[in-house]
Amino acid sequence: MEPLIKFENVCYTYTGNDAEPGMFAVHDLSLEIKEGEFVAILGHNGSGKSTTAKLMNMILAPNSGDIYVEGNKITGRELTDEDVFEVRKKIGMVFQNPDNQIVATIVEEDVAFGPENLGVPSQEIRKRVDEALDIVGMREYARHAPHKLSGGQKQRVAIAGVIAMKPKCIIFDESTAMLDPMGRKEVMNTIRRLNKEGMTVILITHYMNEAVLADRVIVMKSGEIYEQGDPKDVFCNVERLWEAGLEVPQTTELIFKLNKKFGWEIPLGVYDFDTCARLVTEKIKEVRGENVGN
Range of 215's domain? Predict the structure, then answer.
């Protein structure tokens, strides 16, 4: 089965007064995203992760290399507006600031904006809007003004607008970065639910506790893949991630430092605070010679 998105030796260089000659934002990048997969892309500022997302969505076109969507090559020729339109119907994108994505003064009208531009019939638009608002848990706010909503609610409306266009994949480009903890939780719950229902999800994030929820983590550095794999495998390489300027989940960092200081061997792949506390408590009791069951 063909991957949903495939990069082969893709390079991209920004041009302008601030761009250094030969400085690649993305360099010789090859990767595959399978349909239904949940992939988190991590990296320090300037690592190339957001550029990669924009290349997937054809906001940017590569200087060299090939990109495929559902097995169809979308590079190597002059793309028409219709070609780009077809790609964006399949690969939607939600950006960092929800205020920059909302165009209407009523929630349901905003969600309907995308399907209307796709030429979807009115009756089908009504159905899609209701379904999308149900998916993100915002149906009761359908007639509300977006500017009166919280940040997390606005971002869910933005997600509903993309869902209503029926894409195969949604890219979330640091979509929780401007939200408070409650807003981030609301959006992450929506993202997880979408993925469980079959949506391909690409999450670009600085929050490690979001990345651990993914099927696969890709770590980028200097426009290239620095590390990738199952979250547990990737985050166990604590010192390597620190070298890339990244944090690791708080529980992983705590256990790593305790293991290093005391020679313990508590597994690093623990992301739940309660489980982490239990394992550390059990180890302390074991060292003290106490009954772990007490």
Answer: 5-248
